[in-house]
Structure formats: C-alpha cells, structure tokens
C-alpha cells in the first residue's frame, strides 16, 4: 500500500521539460522543494554550457523523496536538504557512492505587509530572534495568529524551523496557531495566498518576494544549518553523471549563492 502511494505521489510531481522529446529519455532527478525557484536558472546555465538535455524533475520534501527511492522510484540523481537521508540510502545500497555536500541553507521569517511587522513589535530591541518576538507578544496577549513551517517529520527545513522556535521559547505552539506544510515550497504558498500570518521559509525561496510579503532572516545560531547533499543513484546513466559533475562547478556555485545558499568548496 505504501509503495503504491509513493509511486502515485511521484507521478503527480514529475515535470518534463517542454523541449524534451520522449525518445531522448532525459535523466530523472529528485529534488528537495527548496530547490524549486533556483532550478530553472541552474538548468538554463547547464544547457547553455553543456548542450545537454534538461532532466525530468520531481520536487518534494526530502523525507518523501527518500521513501520513494527506498521503494524503487527510478531516480538517477538526488539533491536532498538532509544529509542523513543520503546516508540512509547509501547504507541500503541505493547510491553510487557517499555523495557530495553542495551547500548549507538558512531560513527567514516571512509575513504579509498588512500584518504587524517584527520591527514594529521590537522598537529599540536587538534580540537574536527578534523576528519571532512579535509572536511571543501575541501569545502573551492571547491574540490569534497563524504560523506555517514545513512538517518537521519529513522536511529538513521544518526541523530547522522547529529548532528556531524552540530557541525563542515558542515551541510547542498552542493548538490552532501552527499550520504544517507538506514541504518548504508550500510554506511560501500559504504566505502568498494569505492562509497564514507568518511563515518560516528557506532563503532559497524568498530571494524575490512580491510587494505584499516581507522577510527577515533568523539568527543562524538559533537552529542547525540545513546541509544540502547530492548523490548519484543506482543505476545512473551518463546524462545524470554529467549533471552531477556540472553541479559541483563554479557556475552552479555562483547561482546557489545568489539564492541564499552557502556552497561548500
């Protein structure tokens, strides 16, 4: 039953580039959802520099993708936001090797312009988690608000968000205040649609926000860095291996940096 569910989810999330013909069989890449906004720019540079076909992709939380791979999903390359998932797959013999660390990621608090801003709630204060203090004030006054984070059970950025909230004395939140998103990208979607007042979102997804949203980075010391790991899966064809090598180069590192990631040299 679980295997069927995983494959059903896989089929729903795979995207195929419009320019790719079916007979060309581009490689299939699994990506943590925090890569969603930067991936098009990476692929534009990749195609320009190598002349290779853009791969098919599937975006989801690292935990869900790992489950799919364990149950036989035919991915050839995996970009995870959780190095422990890569280690798990390596132990199971699902990977070509131990993989490489691409970069570390950070998170920001995002809120709607109409919502009271952290700056308004903390005039004259310089607190490590100042962006979260506005929620502490609301809790003390029993004022309602809605916060979303990626689900910590299977999303690495959710674990980081939970750690930051705990550092600020906000975890656990009372019932009704927290909305768990399926993955990192959905937290931003909730903020964009106005479903929540605040969202803790990976920096990769908030480099270009619409005017109705604002952001404030969280103090890095309030949570463990999110380590993005990349690994070839068995069996990976030449196209996946070419992409794997290119993603370790200077062009890819430059793009990752522009989207808030810190590449590992």
UniProtKB/TrEMBL annotation:
Assigned protein family: Belongs to the bacterial solute-binding protein ModA family.
- Gene3D superfamilies this protein is in? Periplasmic binding protein-like II (3.40.190.10)
| Residues the entry annotates as binding molybdate | 34, 62
Q: Which domain of life is it from?
A: Bacteria
UniProt name for this protein: Molybdate-binding periplasmic protein
* One Pfam match: SBP_bac_11
Biological processes annotated in GO: molybdate ion transport
- Drop me one GO molecular function for this one: molybdate ion binding
Q: Which residues form the signal peptide?
A: 1-20
Native organism: Granulosicoccus antarcticus IMCC3135
Keyword annotations for this protein? Metal-binding, Molybdenum, Signal
Ranked from the top, the taxonomy reads: Bacteria, Pseudomonadati, Pseudomonadota, Gammaproteobacteria, Chromatiales
Q: Which NCBIfam families match?
A: modA
